[in-house]
Amino acid sequence: MNSAPIRTTLLMTSLLLASPMALADARDDAMRHLASKSGCFICHGIELNASGPDGLKPVGPPWKAVAARYKGDKNAVKTLTAAVMGGTSPYSRHWKDESSGVAMPPNGVAIKEDDAKKLVEWILKMK
Ligand code: HEC
Fold it and tell me: How many domains does the chain have?
């Protein structure tokens, strides 16, 4: 007997019963996975006090710091998605004191713009 329909029904039922909290967790996992497979975590951490290689500051700013800095900035999704896709300039650093990397390279080779936007929206909601 084919158990696939049963499994699907069980899955659907558990999704329907899932609390909004569990759904938020599932979304969180999906976003972490996307960030991980796109290489973001090579340079970025999420938590504020994460340190980088050899106890230096992390290469890129912690994402909770990014969320705090751009809180209330209506253009943040647009400008940050552009920064993720196209990279940042070493001559006008936004995170000079909080990170040890000189600039963010363009990530367009590793991630599609739609996905970069989803990550930025997720980052900006971090508390
Ligand atoms: C090779 C290292 C590296 C990788 C990989 C990387 N970043 Fe960055 N990122 C940086 C650095 C360094 C900065 C700080 C640039 C500055 O000081 O202006 C930064 C800054 C940022 C900022 C803030 C930009 C600003 O203008 O304030 C966001 C948002 C961000 N990164 C998201 C991402 C996402 C999403 C990914 C994965 C798709 C990613 N980064 C991959 C190094 C990296």
Answer: 1
